[in-house]
Amino acid sequence: MRILIVEDDKRVARFVVKGLNENAYTTSWATGCSEANDLLSEGDYDMIVLDLGLPDGDGLDLLREWRRCGFNEPVLILSARDRLEDRINGLNLGADDYLPKPFSFEELLARVRSQLRRSSKTKQTVMEHRGIRMDLLGHTVTFEGRGIDLTNREFALLEALLQNHGRVLTRTQIGEKIWDAHYDMQTNLIDVYIRKLRKNLGDHHEPPLIKTVRGVGYSMP
């Protein structure tokens, strides 16, 4: 599950990102309206945690724009504006939840999970392909009935491959999906994670579960 954090306070953002990453969510962080829109145009997100007081605009205007453009994923407002009228305004403009600052991470996590559970009713949350079964909500993977223990990065990599099975993912696409950054083609980080994933799934399958497309990237046939 991918979550976009829109927050200009570095301390708060790092606290939220660290906590969500430790709970197996993949996060991206935007410090303002423009950066948030850029990230949304580049990839899909399952949820957004949105601050309102941003350096280049108001989060409510951003929320209004997203809803007008058809973005229907859950949005949780996380703001120091804690007056009743602020909460009502945010919810009326399309927010799914509103949590005032200061906040506890445990409550934020519970609200994130609640919103994702609700939205998952209309989404595919279990993917199956060639004996691999991935439960996105339960964060579990089995292969041919055997439980597979994966790190968060390995889980996200397998999720990207399963979502795009039958298509080739370039190294740049993988880097952007998993590390949320343009991938440096001179490094072998992606190759390392592919090897780890192959080892976890077993290397003896024919055709291979993960195919190397030389000079391009990887695919899951």
Tags for this entry?
alpha/beta, 221 residues, 4-stranded antiparallel sheet, 5-stranded parallel sheet, 23% strand
What does this structure look like?
This protein is α/β, with parallel strands linked by helices and 221 residues long. The chain is built from 8 helices and 14 strands. The chain has helices at 10-22, 33-42, 59-68, 84-92, 105-120, 152-163, 171-179, 189-201; strands at 2-6, 26-30, 47-50, 53-54, 57-58, 75-79, 97-100, 126-129, 132-135, 140-143, 146-148, 168-170, 211-213, 217-219. The strands form 4 sheets. A 5-stranded parallel beta sheet has the order 2-1-3-6-7, sandwiched between helices. The protein is elongated, with a radius of gyration of 19 Å.
Provide a concise account of the structure shown:
With 221 residues, the chain is α/β, with parallel strands linked by helices. The chain contains eight helices and 14 strands.
**Radius of gyration, Cα only, in angstroms?**
19 Å
Q: What multimeric state do the chains show? A: single chain
The side-by-side strand order for the widest beta sheet comes to 2-1-3-6-7
| Number of separate strands | 14
User: Looking at the structure, what is the overall shape?
Assistant: elongated
Q: What percentage of the residues does DSSP assign to strands (E)?
A: 15-25%
Mean pLDDT: 88
Helical fraction equals 40-55%
